[in-house]
Specification:
heterodimer; A: about 210 residues; alpha/beta; Rossmann fold; five-stranded parallel β-sheet; four-stranded antiparallel β-sheet; 7 helices; about 30% helix; about 25% strand; globular; B: about 220 residues; mainly alpha; 9 helices; about 85% helix; elongated
Chain lengths: ~210, ~220
């Protein structure tokens, strides 16, 4: 998959966030989004996940605008945002099995994603007993259960300890080695070899025309 | 199909584990219906005349109880994003959630209704028709409720808002549901049963479609 964006602009409500933003990603690439709070990192990631529309510019997959075939595009991506999407009454293993089934990829070995994120011992525990760092790990285990080529991660490192940071860096490296693409936003330096980086502060919103005339 | 079943099972499992909504709806249904003998007086003739109406109105209100949470929880914790990203079309996801809502809060009413009706001195000969009418009518209530729940997603006091939106739409179901089992109705009520079936057949494709459109708005 090739993912490109050009002249991209977005707004939250009435307030413009950024404009003229562009990038080009090929299999194996990673893009790190940085920028101050409120600069539109989350909004950009949601746009890339197909939620909402940009106010300007286009996002293309393999040269075709996303809007042409949103459903098949969505089948190839997975998005981990700030919300962990956990149900407190379900156990860790049940949660993961549900995600795999929902993605249409029922897994034979449900515990592999858990082991990969160091949650193997907590498999039967209800989610209400997990700490916030463990919840974050479980949300990231979803990436393995969902098994999509494009990962969109909104501040995946928040609340993680050093061990988990190493695990997620490993996962990203393996994913890229397998031809996957990763777009992530972060405030912490993550060791990602050869990653492109984009600071949203470099793409300030253009003044709306009507205001410029005043 | 795997995703549809997964969503349905998860909702049922959550309902049983958290053990609130379904049991609550039935208890509300029975308790509220039992208030009527106190309010209307214990004359058997008066109660028997109003029994069908009481059962239906209470069933309608009971189905509203858990509606505001139908999508709210999934929306707040991000599960709805995942459902939107999954290969399951949003329309079918709505259908799965409405079905889970009906299984949890509608189906138990079918069991409780004969009990309540008998306590209200309703003629036992009419019970099968009452249950049949409820069986056709309550799924329509769940489907209409799903539209209301999707439209009010993210609103403050969504519970009240859902009721205001949905109750007027549910009036046709109420009218034909009561007429189907009312001993005062002419004929054997099969016309009304057929109308209830038609309403369900209409709601089955239209409500998930409308609710999915509302959910797409909420997710932007």
């Amino acid at each position: 998959m090739q993912l490109t964006a050009e002249g991209l602009g977005a707004a939250r409500g009435e307030r413009p966030l950024f404009s003229g933003l562009g990038f080009a990603l090929a299999p194996g690439d990673a893009l790190v989004l940085t920028g101050p709070n409120g600069s539109g990192k989350s909004s950009l990631l949601r746009l890339l996940a197909g939620f909402g529309r940009p106010t300007a510019g286009t996002i293309r997959r393999d040269g075709k605008p996303l809007g042409d075939d949103l459903d098949s595009y969505r089948a190839e991506l997975h998005f981990v945002g700030h919300q962990e999407a956990l149900k407190l009454a379900l156990s860790v293993a049940e949660t993961l099995r549900f995600w795999g089934d929902l993605a249409g990829r029922p897994s034979q070995d449900g515990n592999r994603p858990l082991a990969a994120l160091g949650l193997g011992a907590q498999a039967e525990l209800p989610c209400r007993f997990l700490s916030s760092g463990q919840r974050r790990r479980l949300a990231l285990a979803r990436l393995l259960a969902w098994d999509a080529p494009l990962w969109l991660l909104d501040e995946p490192t928040v609340g993680l300890d050093d061990e988990a940071l190493g695990l997620i860096a490993d996962l990203i490296r393996q994913h890229r080695a397998g031809g996957g693409i990763v777009v992530l936003s972060t405030h912490q330096p993550l060791a990602l070899a050869g990653a492109q980086s984009l600071s949203l502060a470099d793409f300030p919103p253009a003044r709306p025309l009507a205001l410029a005339e005043w | 199909m795997v995703s549809f079943k997964a969503l349905l099972w998860r909702d049922l499992r959550l309902a049983f584990r958290q053990g609130g909504d379904g049991a609550l709806a039935v208890i509300f249904f029975v308790l509220a219906a039992l208030l009527f003998p106190f309010g209307l007086g214990p004359e058997p003739e008066a109660l028997a005349r109003d029994a069908v109406g009481i059962v239906w109105v209470m069933a309608l209100l009971a189905s509203l109880l858990a509606l505001d949470r139908l999508f709210q929880g999934d929306w707040e914790d991000g599960s709805l994003d995942l459902v939107a990203l999954s290969p399951l079309p949003l329309e079918l996801a709505v259908l799965a959630k409405a079905l889970a809502h009906w299984l949890v809060s509608g189906l138990p009413l079918l069991v409780a209704a004969p009990l309540v009706a008998s306590m209200l001195q309703f003629d036992p000969a009419g019970l099968p028709r009452l249950v049949l009418a409820l069986g056709l009518g309550t799924p329509t209530l769940s489907l209409l409720g799903a539209v209301g729940a999707a439209l009010t997603l993210g609103a403050r006091r969504a519970g009240v808002l859902v009721s205001l939106l949905v109750l007027p739409l549910e009036i046709p179901v109420l009218i034909f549901g009561v007429a189907a089992a009312d001993p005062a109705t002419m004929g054997d009520g099969s016309t009304q049963i057929m109308v209830l079936g038609a309403l369900l057949a209409l709601a089955l494709p239209l409500c998930p479609w409308a609710a999915a459109a509302a959910l797409r708005q909420a997710l932007e």
